[in-house]
Amino acid sequence: MIELLGSDYSVYVRSARLALAEKGVSYRLSAVDVFAPGGPPDAYLALNPFAKIPTLNHDGFVLYESGAILRYVDEAFEGPALQPADKRERARMNQILSVLDAYAYTTLVWEIFVERIVKTRGGNPSDEVRISSAMGQARRVVTALETLSQAGPFLLGEQLTLADCHAAPMLHLFSQTEEGELLLKGAPGLAGWLDSFRSRPSFVETEPASAV
Ligand SMILES: N[C@@H](CCC(=O)N[C@@H](CS)C(=O)NCC(=O)O)C(=O)O
User: Whose CA is closest to 112, among 126, 99, 93?
Assistant: First the structure.
């Protein structure tokens, strides 16, 4: 039994779902809403004390932290390898995963996407100071990803890797903002990769049921 706990709106849940889909693994997505008033239920906190999503449960083996989940999904199941065999390529992939966690997520998703789009959808004005303060870091992230990525259909060239699975959900949200559109114009390799990754069946089938 393979169960992924989390909500489809989460970029982290989506990256795990992309890896499962690209691997060809069937799983059940069990809804856990970490942003529900009062937080997630105690039963979820018993699995993941940090109250973050996703958490994977594979036949009773419970795993949280997306980096660990992504690598486990690749290593535990049959299907195309999602990590390069070459040490330096794998190091590059791991570097991109770290850049996404350490520098991209908060800036691109919370400080820009949520501030520019989610907040205004709820009728609240964006905090322009928060957005403009985030732009330097956003530019660094986009430039770094453009520099680290290689020619070819995927971030690391010819092989689809965990880097694609982890980067696509964050960059997809960021690209919907005017700031994202602007910065991606200056990173044609990254923008082209994102455009083509969006049409993959794995990406289409993991589209959140309602607007993020
Ligand atoms: N370090 C965690 C981060 C996951 C994460 O931040 N998930 C977000 C949703 S995209 C979350 O659970 N946020 C809840 C919160 O911050 O309260 C991982 O790698 O899985």
Answer: 126
Distance between CA 39 and CA 189 in Å, rounded? 39
- Cβ atoms within 10 Å, residue 52: 17
C-alpha 154 to ligand 1 mean position (Å): 25
Alpha-carbon distance of 25 to 123, in angstroms, equals 40
Residue nearest to atom 16 of ligand 1 (CA): 52
Q: Which residues line ligand 1 (CB under 6 A)?
A: 10-12, 34, 51-53, 65-67
Q: Determine the length of the chain.
A: 212
| Ligand 1 center–CA 203 separation, angstroms | 20
* pLDDT above 90: residue 210: no
Residue located nearest, by CA, to atom 10 of ligand 1: 10
Instruction: List, in order of start, the domains of the chain with CATH numbers.
Output: 2-76 (3.40.30.10), 87-205 (1.20.1050.10)
Evaluate if pTM is beyond 0.85. Answer: yes
